Amino acid sequence: MMAFWDTIRLAFGTFVSNPLRSFLTLLGIVIGATTVVTMMGLIQGLRNQVNENLSELGSDCFQVQRLPFGAGDLSLAELSRRPRFNLDDLEAIREQPSVLVAAAEDSFGGLKVSTSQRESRANVGVWSGTPEYFQTNSVTVQSGRAFTQTEYLDGRRVAVIGMDLADTLFPGLEPLGQTIRLKGRNFEVIGTLKRRGGFLGGGSQDNQMMIPLSAFRPLFGFRDLRVSIQARSTEVLQRAQDEVTVLMRRRHNLKPTEADDFFIFSNESTTKMFNSISQVISAATFGVCVLSLLVGGIGILNIMLVAVTERTREIGIRKALGAKKRRILAQFALEAVVLSLAGGVLGVGLGMGLAHLAKWVMGLPTEVPMWAVALSLAMSSGVGLGFGIYPAARAAKLDPVEAMRTE
Predict the structure, then answer these.
(1) Does any domain span residue 179?
(2) Does residue 338 lie within any of the structural domains?
(3) What are the residues facing 181 on neighbouring strands?
(4) What is the DSSP string of 379-392?
(5) Per-residue pLDDT reduced to its tens digit, 263-295
(6) Which of 223, 239, 261 is the C-terminal boundary of a domain?
(7) 84/385: higher pLDDT
(8) Does residue 277 lie within any of the structural domains?
(9) Phi, psi of 9 (to 5 degrees)
């Protein structure tokens, strides 16, 4: 045990005696460990955000829409030829046995909303829908109320606004009953939405206004109608999706061999999409890590060869005093592992710091998984051992008489 701690002391002595050279040598290992820990922390944070957002959507809700998230294998021309949804589709979906309620919705982003005294930036999202939208999207009205079926049928210009927009237009004031202007039209604020934060790690869901679809259409026309659906229960959710799929295939006159020309969006589909994206990111992260560790390993090999050359006389004296080959081999191999592990520890510390910085700056619930820390340290140690074996073996094979003659 004393020999082990003596070897550890010698290893850190090598690092302290040449700190700049040692740090530059370990830079690749530091970068590799930092990359793994930071990216895994960010991915875990995104996963936490996704799970939180999806839990708000409701386990018995899903959406059918014309376009998927990402084109996939389809060209833009193929996507543009897909038929758009209409209000007749909505009525047909409502008649399905497993469907409890369905709502049509549409949206337009990047708009300015103003009052007689203030104006927002051109980043407000305007969402519209039928009155059932609030139920099928689990949207909670914090104060005031949602618009009614009568207001929807009459096309009244009423709005429920997010808290970010309320803070911008009515700082310190009660927004209910106030008038806001959108595209030159006046809308009465009848409610405010409960704060929801970002969706899937993206922009804020609170910088928006919600208006009846009948008031949206005169301003923006027919854009891309979607239908959000709540099944009668979680147990019949899949049956409801199957019923809607069969219905839409029949309405779009699709043959049995033809693929769907619409997309079902649900918690399950979103989770699969996120997992596929995170797998690509993880693979790229490990690729960068492997390259960085390879560079760091070459640095370890170089510094250990230099150490063997600088300490040839010391090795000769120790062997003359009875040190066996395996003792010399263990000494230099352990030194390489300790140096590499020091780079891994530094990289893990930097990675955790960057992950927490992202949590503070981006608002992501980042969380560094312990397996990422263990993997980074294990890979760092493995690189040190792998690239330190040759210099250690070379030191162990030195002839003590020839080594002692070295100046």
Answers:
(1) yes
(2) yes
(3) 114, 186
(4) HHHHHHHHHHHHHH
(5) 888 766 666 666 666 777 777 777 777 777 777
(6) 261
(7) 84
(8) yes
(9) -60, -40
| Paired tokens of 356 | 């927490």
Q: Do 235 and 88 share a structural domain?
A: yes
Residue type, 323: A
Q: Closest Cα partner for 82 from 264, 245, 263?
A: 263
**Residues forming a β-bridge with 161:** 192, 209
pLDDT in tens, 348-357: 888 888 888 8
What pairing do the DSSP bridges indicate for beta strands 208-212 and 124-129? parallel
Residue found under tokens 């300015």: 112
Mean pLDDT for the chain overall: 80
Nearest-angstrom CA–CA distance, 186 and 385: 72
Tokens of 69: 């998230």
Same domain, 102 and 224: yes
Q: Look up the pTM and report it.
A: 0.62
Q: How far is CA 121 from CA 146, 173, 208, 252, 324, in A?
A: 25, 19, 12, 40, 75
User: Given 241, 261, 281, which residue is the final one in a domain?
Assistant: 261
Contacts of 304-310 with C-beta under 8 Å, sequence gap 24+, read: 304/332, 304/335, 304/336, 304/387, 304/388, 304/391, 304/392, 305/390, 305/391, 305/394, 307/14, 307/332, 307/335, 307/391, 308/332, 308/391, 308/394, 308/395
152 plus 255 within the same structural domain: yes
Residue 66, token pair as written in the block? 């014309």
* More confident site: 235 or 325: 235
Geometric angle at alpha carbon 384, from 379 and 388, rounded to 5°: 150
User: Residues 323, 399: one domain?
Assistant: yes
Helix or strand holding residue 264 (H, E):
strand 263-266
235/317 same-domain check: no
Q: Residue 215's domain spans which residues?
A: 83-261
